UniProtKB/TrEMBL annotation:
It is found in: Cytoplasm. Its main location: cytoplasm. It comes from Stutzerimonas marianensis. Keywords: Cytoplasm, Phosphoprotein. This is Malonate decarboxylase acyl carrier protein. It holds the Pfam family ACP. Belongs to the MdcC family.
Length: 99
């Protein structure tokens, strides 16, 4: 198990909370909660050691062309593919009221 932390610039805090996904074979769970204005903080607990650059690249691609809301995001990963990670994050952003 490995714990990774990332931080990105953000806008105002999100309007709500969300929990999407289920920790299990090939999937992950994402918890999103309003954060401090201007800051998107992401913590990933993953069963895949040595994947920090893959996670960082995925987040950078997602947030390059948009300003996300200020959130604290906790991800509990059990070997999800990048496509599943992006899907779960997009589902969570939709639920917290981010357009």
């Amino acid at each position: 198990m490995e714990t990774l932390s990332f931080e990105f610039a953000a806008g105002q805090p999100a309007r709500g909370k969300a929990l999407v996904g289920v920790v299990g074979s090939g999937d992950l769970e994402v918890l999103l909660e309003p954060g401090q204005a201007g800051k998107l903080a992401i913590q990933v607990v993953t069963s895949v050691n040595g994947a920090e650059q893959r996670w960082k690249s995925l987040f950078e691609r997602m947030f390059r062309e948009q300003t996300p809301p200020a959130l604290n995001i906790d991800i509990h990963d059990f070997g999800a593919t990048p496509g599943v990670v992006r899907l779960r994050l997009e589902q969570g952003l939709e639920e917290v009221g981010h357009d």
